[in-house]
Amino acid sequence: MTHSSEETLYKYNADLAPVKASQKTWTAYNFLTVWMGMVHNIISYEVAGGLILLGMSAWEAIFTIIVGNLILLVPMLLNGYQGTRLRVPFPVLIRSSFGVKGAVIPVILRAVVGIGWFSVQTYFIATIFNSLLALLWHGWTHVGGSFNFLGMNLTGWITFMLSWFLNVLILRHGMNSIKRFEAWAGPLVLILALGLIIWSVRVSHGFGPLFHQGAHFPKGQNLSTVFVPALTGVISSWATLVLNIGDFTRFSETQRAQIVGQSLGLPGTAIVFSFMSIMITSGSLVAFGHAIWNPITLLTHFHNIVILALGGFALVIATISVNVSANIVSPAYDITNLFPRHLNFVSAGIVAATLAIFLMPWKLMQNPTTLFTFLGAIGGLLGPVAGVMIADFWLIHHRRIHVMALYQRDGAYSYWHGFNLRALAALGLGVSTSAIGYFNTSLHWLYAYSWFIGLGLALVVYWVLSRIWPGEAPELSSTNEMVNAALSNE
């Protein structure tokens, strides 16, 4: 593609362009390790514990996690297929359904969620650093004295900026550096967790008491009343990645690579890691007299500098791994899409990371319930977006998308002044249904299950509206032929 032709395209630059054949180097192993890196984190570790605290038995918690991840895998593969086939990132792909201008709405929503979670996870890494440094050097907590800036002391600022820098260091080398980092980070965390498994088996002489403990639901509740809300919680932690999984799969060697890699990595890794977390916690119940679900707290009970250092290193690597992959890749592409003439993937990622600082997560985390309610509500808005995406590609266009028209202001996907009113109506209905459940306590289940309801409702509504009010369908050759034509001069 020549420089002159690039200038005529709408919201286009090298990072938003379809990837070249030479860039499609991600194998099934890469997708497996990416999911390892994203799943092997403290929040995932504590999910099983949260289900047991709701009253489930260990086996019921594991079953819930299995079902949730198998459900989640379906839209991951459907949207992952789009990325591999079309070779474009989420902000470009979404133009076929929402219009070349209307796409900015779901793009901004996804960017806000990504930056919010990046901010929180970066601060979370800083708290790990602080906890470990305080254990290794008792004078650490007194460094800086009474210094306070914007509500955080000197040690907090030192560890937060260190955490921020480590995340950006990986990001600044682009998607290939993320692939290389995840290739060793994901397996490393799993290996270190296996050490704790061996310890747990030795002290418990088997699986441990948690696996022999039955369900203990509060009065008036049982598995049937707890299961679906718990299932929603399991799914919601990764629901946002459903939208931009194509940011990764566009680099896949083949469809088989992303399908096999994701199928092994998402449900497989999540199930194994959850099983391991229950086993380790079960060992802590035997060793220390009470169940310890927080891995940082567990490490402090060993009073061993080597274990603290290795365990702390594993926790930092695990959290950076999920932060870079799940929380900053999408905002980097999303912000590039907003300012393609001025920013690329790396510079836009740094902008997103900088915006995360201004969110001051140390203040937000003073009331984490409010923070996660806000981020969860925004994330719930993305369920209808996923429904529209799936319906558009699989049911409306039947996998045939005019790739170059995604970069044309007045092309096949300009719809009405750049907006696809059918997609916006489906999104609006999905969001409003969730909002009704939020404000009407008698219909709270609509809000509790908003991701499921929003995705399904938006998918059906968008499909129906597109059937009764079809837009103009351009004559298309096969998608792969158009992608090859688009890249023929590169």
TrEMBL record:
The chain crosses the membrane at residues 32-54, 61-78, 98-118, 152-171, 183-203, 223-243, 264-293, 305-330, 342-362, 374-398, 419-439, 445-465. It is found in: Membrane. It is a multi-pass membrane protein. It comes from the Bacteria. Its main location: membrane. The keyword Phosphoprotein does not apply. Keywords: Membrane, Transmembrane, Transmembrane helix. GO terms for cellular component: plasma membrane. GO terms for molecular function: nucleobase transmembrane transporter activity. Belongs to the purine-cytosine permease (2.A.39) family. This is Nucleobase:cation symporter-1, NCS1 family. It comes from Sulfobacillus thermosulfidooxidans (strain DSM 9293 / VKM B-1269 / AT-1). The lineage of its organism: Bacteria, Bacillati, Bacillota, Clostridia, Eubacteriales.
